[in-house]
Amino acid sequence: METVFDAHVDPGLVERSLAASTFGSMWLDTGRPEYPRATGSIDCDLLVVGGGYTGLWTALHAAQRNPEGRIVLIEANRIGWAASGRNGGFVDASLTHGLENGKARWPNEIDILEAMGRENLDGMQADIEALGLDAEWQRTGMLSVATEPHQVDWLADAAAHGNGQLLGLREVREDVHSPTYLAGLHQPDTCAIVHPGKLAVELARACTEAGVRVYEHTNAARLDGAGGALRMHAGAARITCGNVVLATNVFPSLVRRNRLHTVPVYDYVLATEPLTDAQLDRVGWRRRQGIGDSANQFHYYRLTMDNRIVWGGYDAVYHFGRKVDDRYEDRTATYRRLAAHFFITFPALDDVRFTHRWAGAIDTNTRFCAHWGLARDGRIAYVNGFTGLGTGAARFAADVCLDLLDRKPTARTQLEMVRRRPLPFPARAAGQHRHPGDRWSLDRADHAAGRRNILLRSLDALGLGFDS
Q1: Does residue 217 carry a pLDDT above 80?
Q2: Looking at CB atoms within 10 Å, which of 75, 101, 342, 453 has the fewest?
Q3: What is the pTM of this model?
């Protein structure tokens, strides 16, 4: 059984569309100020390791909670250069990587988690507005589309349970003009879109204005300390601190016991040139909402402020050995596949070309959303495992880390989601993408009306089942 994305696309069109594309994240083309490298002896109350969203929100909120606190943030490369500068810019309200994943794992607290997720999204918008962050924030909502008949039933079921407005074939195609759409589920207030690079840059600016000392090109190599203060060895710097938050996400944790809990999975993205008004008229999309299709191997896409289409997903690739390596990023076959699927979705845009192609590593764990922990007598807090939905959840995660270090129970720290750690991946491992058979099985499920084979059903039963 073929899917809509098995349709033939002229290879010449694909090659032409990619021919002039630049390898590298479009989001990181924005102007980014340089921060100094840390050197010498530095003392602080809180050290935050990692200059992505999690670390930046942690440092910012720590400074807001305690304006007199001495807070230092260090980043091994540049602010926002990793996942925070390479994602699609979707800010989802979900803290659990979607309602169904949350219901399956924490059925008794899913209503609380959903409410906290909406509160976090609203709080993020309020922070951006109050701080004047130029992040191209747009509260557009989300449109999930069915591209195969069995997916229509999935969307109808979600709508029947109050999780959005169901759009039939005519309605969804009037909204966004794609011949692949069979139905849609519109959720008007559960998602925003943002410029990922600008968000990181602006959060760093807000941190410095709040008194945080920010350092780049400062690699956290070793963390010592027992009984008294902690000491971080970071290149030419020795940083003595009272507490530490490790916001290193996909990169190896300085807490060794945490290293088996996450694996890197590579995600790939394309961005078009800015669409002309005439080109945009061919596809409609007047509400500018984020869009995702409903397959196991799914695509996500959105419009930028200058009317580019950012188009990513489908292939999610694990490389044996858990390594994060930039050699995995320029994957020609995947970019060609993504381009072909773009033209299947929007055949009226066959004159559009791609200007950028890039990839990044997602930190995933066996429950597919963030997990937390403490080490060194509760003086080190860490969080990992966002699995691609960290743009919004990172803000919530930062507050959890600060709550844990405060050693005072809060509604957040009492969550089972926070108190319980996920299963580690097996030593050979990488969860849903650890073996070619798993990805083959996901593809087969998409070609079999969503029916999952015995391998995927077994992973589901163990709590390891997922899609791309």
Answers
A1: yes
A2: 453
A3: 0.92
